[in-house]
């Protein structure tokens, strides 16, 4: 609800801006901060609501993104023509204010975490008080997931792979319409391409969630996610080959298939590699790295376009980041799975060896040194 208020205030303030720097602060920082609050908290609460079919729940929840991709370009163009950009920002502020309604209907979730016991003040310590810099470092490490990043190999692979993938993933959304218009496609038909992607995702994301929620694919969702990223990168090569409108429509349809897989499986894979009690911190660090990649990617592609004056290089750049990220994540997840299996077999072999150890009979002498009796040696396993 706080995110909805901030996003609304940022849009309303944007309608009164007179310079581009003011627009950066209002529409970029204030609205972006509000959208982060709303998005992050909703995804975390969604993970607590569902124990079964989480992949389907994530897919259905992300259908709203697809609906927004479908309607937002058409609504923005209509409002710009009738109200101008200042009036459009005011209407967008009213739309974002509805996030408060969405936040109000989120019911609190009862967690199984035990309440913290209140104890008395700790005894004075003789150790020196840590500096402000050290205290800030510990606070950052406590609230972000740097400890998970260091100890959890699966989370490390996923986070680094996604950060690398995001360098190429948003580029088609930014450059597809200018690319089509550069090659003679009408402005309205070019804007329709983004709506085709969003409309297709409305139906494809629930289908992807249904497939991913099946028990047969429960242990293979990481590989399905990598396969969707790989298909997304290969699709951009088709777009770079031709700029004909019919080819671009086919590109949008195939692109929607891979995009729906990425959107439906992204949060589910993160829930699979990280325990749910640490999911909020893990999602926070992953989102920060994604934001850095999104901040770098469009200016880098724009610099490449200004240097070469060829849109095809932008799509080649997008394909490179997506394909390399997919190969990295798929290969790393496969290697980690083989390592876990090998360690599991070793642990089972050690346990079997301890259980099958024969009881060794020891001969001990009696007190009179003439009588001998058998004594069974018992081995107690105190640690595994």
UniProtKB/TrEMBL annotation:
Record-linked InterPro entries: MFS (IPR011701), MFS_dom (IPR020846), MFS_trans_sf (IPR036259), Proton-linked_MCT (IPR050327)
Superkingdom of source: Eukaryota
Residue ranges crossing the lipid bilayer per the database entry: 27-49, 56-75, 87-106, 157-179, 191-211, 223-242, 248-270, 282-301, 313-336
Keyword flag Chaperone: no
Membrane topology type: Multi-pass membrane protein
One Gene Ontology cellular component annotation held by this UniProt entry: basolateral plasma membrane
Localization per Swiss-Prot or TrEMBL: Membrane
Domain Major facilitator superfamily (MFS) profile: 1-342
Keyword line: Membrane, Transmembrane, Transmembrane helix
GO MF entries: monocarboxylic acid transmembrane transporter activity
Record bears the keyword Chloroplast: no
Name under which the protein is recorded: Monocarboxylate transporter 6
